[in-house]
Amino acid sequence: MKWDEFSEWGRKVSDWTQDYHLTVGDRPVRAKTEPGEVLNALPLSPPEGGEGMAQIFEDFETIVMPGITHWQHPRFFAYFTSNAAAPSVLAEFLASAIAPQCMLWQTSPAATELETRMMDWLRQALDLPDQFQGVIQDTASSATLAAVLTMREKALAWRGNQDGLFNQKQLRIYCSSEVHTSIDRAIWVSGIGQQNLVRVPIKGDWRGMDPDALEAAIQADIAAGHQPAGVILCVGGTGVGATDPVAEVLDIAEKHGLYTHVDAAWAGSAMICPEYRHYWPGIERADSIVFNPHKWLGVQFDCSAHFLKNPDDLVQTLAISPEYLKTHGRDGIINYSEWSVPLGRRFRALKIWFLIRTYGLDGLRDRLRNHINWSTALHNKLAQEPDFEITSAPMWSLWSFRYTPTGREDLDELNQTLVNKINDDGRIYLTQTRLDGQLVIRFQAGQFETTEADVMMAYDVITEIARTQL
Length: 470
Ligand code: PLP
Hints:
With 470 residues, the protein is α/β, with parallel strands linked by helices. It has a domain at 101-346: Type I PLP-dependent aspartate aminotransferase-like (Major domain) (Aspartate Aminotransferase, domain 2), CATH 3.40.640. 42% of the residues lie in helices and 14% in strands. It has helices at residues 6-23, 37-41, 53-64, 86-98, 109-125, 140-155, 160-163, 181-189, 211-223, 246-255, 293-297, 311-318, 349-383, 411-425, 452-469, and strands spanning 133-137, 171-176, 197-200, 202-203, 208-209, 227-234, 259-263, 288-291, 304-308, 388-395, 398-403, 431-435, 438-444. It has a 7-stranded mixed β-sheet, with helices on both faces. Strand 12 and strand 13 form a beta hairpin. The chain is globular. It starts with 5 loop residues before the first helix and ends with a helix. It binds pyridoxal-5'-phosphate (PLP). Pyridoxal-5'-phosphate binds at residues 80, 139-141, 180, 182, 237-238, 263, 265-266, 292, 304. Pyridoxal-5'-phosphate (PLP) binds at residues 80, 139-141, 180, 182, 237-238, 263, 265-266, 292, 304.
């Protein structure tokens, strides 16, 4: 395809996109495809000659689309959402058209400076002190890895990158039992090792880390000759929204001089609303915080906001500056590739800019509040049903339940069958988790275009399928 033919297909793709988003609610949320179906529809070998866009686009519609699970469906209540609000899709289109590689200031000054400003807008939206500076990472997993590497380097007096971990004391990192597996991965990749990730027991309704148990674990490690290096806090855990007592955990970390990282990948978006900030009192004392605007805020995937109280610690951990990456003759510039594990960086700030300017913070707050209120209303309604049990109360817009009809012993199996049947039905999409050893069903609302009617439809679908198909 030549660029002078682009606009014809560009217009078709744009029309298709608008139509897709306006009608996606008519499609089953989860793909109905069987394993191998898409693979078998694809030619075994690549074409030797070029093909026309008309044929390629037809195959996209007939082969690919049936195998898509619709994350932008208004009744996507599974996992956490991964939103793509219209203005951020436009920005992503532009970013992919100009395709800058934004590793250094000079490789696109506008991308770097827009990123600096957008991260400061988000900082203000979350009401974090202006001491915090931010960088956009691809995912929360990368931000957590960067934070764990920083913990490692600080604890080893910046010798870890050079000397490795041989002949060192065992570094110890602390977190609750409710954290996301991205924390385990960061521990593996950093070379610290799973056995040095200390799972502190939880307590209370928020299923947060027990501060007394954290203190005891640190003391025991010091007595055993280990070296405590950092604490990873959880605000809005993936299973049921577990949230640590932030201020109390930070008190203990500060007392022991430990680097702290807060994983608020999902719930961080809600902190643009002042009334939810009581969930992270003292957050301004953390060293590092991550949240994903691509989850709940509406920014097209991927976009993870990573705030640092002292970016120098991160830069000292990750920066490598060979001659071919140097920018001579410019002072005070930021090269964001020194703030992240990958060198190459996409132009992600543009979609934050388009999104926030289109809706304003108030427009975004309204959406989040609606999700939380509607989800809570659904929770209250299901709680009235004697054959259902609420297994965890709403944390923001996330809660969980089980179907518990009298006379059934096999509740784990029964509830897994219920999830499967609901998802085969296609009107809504839910996923399960384990809570205190039991299989429970999660519900969260957060899709950008979801309505109250969409959320309440979940009540009809859940009760109807449970009572007629099990
Ligand atoms: N932390 C929490 C609490 C999450 O729920 C998730 C994903 O859902 C992650 C981290 C990982 O996010 P990412 O896919 O951006 O690495």
